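Entry 12.
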Amino acid sequence: MPIDASRALAAEPRTGEISWTTKDVQLYHLGIGAGAHPDKDAPATDPDELRYTLESRLHVLPSFATVAGSGAPGVISGLSMPGVEVELAKVLHGGQTLEIHRPIPAEGTATATHRLAAVYDKGKAAILVLRTEVADADGPLWTNDAQIFVRGEGGWGGDRGPSTRLEPPAGEPDRTVERPIRADQALLYRLSGDWNPLHADPEFAKRAGFDRPILHGLCTYGITLKAVVDTLLGGDVSRVRSYTTRFAGVVYPGETLRIRMWRQEGSVRVEVSCVERGDAPVLADTVVEHS
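Predicted 3D structure (tokens):
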């Protein structure tokens, strides 16, 4: 069996140093659409966008944690863990959970510890949960859980794991915004470190079952968090406490995201869909917890 759950879970954590600079943060922000102001009449140098792109006033969107230092998220690094031998073409990013312990500095050095926190048997597929805990000299910074969906690798009788499905939000959304995806968005985003050819190579994408390269799920994840922060949190990135989503469908570069937001006590429920494909679901069971 390509996935040996007991061996994978028993493996020693991997620990290493990561570092990032303001340039890394700026590149990430550009990769999720910063500078392309949602008001098309406003310049890219609008103050609301410069807080993401100008080093002298740089604030770090918490989702930067998914690429900080090492670039590739759990979708890639999780496949190199002991007990895991699967083809990259069988792999999709199933979901992401991020807990922010304190604001991320615009540049820094920290220690990242990676381990497989869980392996679930979904019958026709397996789900690997790769946990990354990051701390610097002042203490914990963030904890990332990447849910890695591996097609065709379930069925060994293991734990199915908890359900992540939430009840649909009630009533009409408090805010709805649309965010166009540039035709070259995936090519720009991958410069932050996620080199999976699924997002750039048409031949690889076809082998993986897609008509053409798809946008990184974590790019949509970042675009969505930026929309929530800018729209409902007054542009204050430090208010974000945690951010969870399930990747419910793909996005192709050139399409448009429709982001619906519902205010709740201490949180925002979010649903994201693709405008051009009849509101096909993209992100589901999405919650941003905030102060």
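Annotation: The helical segments are 5-10, 22-31, 47-53, 74-77, 185-189, 202-207, 217-232. The beta strands are 14-20, 91-100, 108-121, 125-136, 139-151, 175-180, 240-247, 256-264, 267-274, 280-290.
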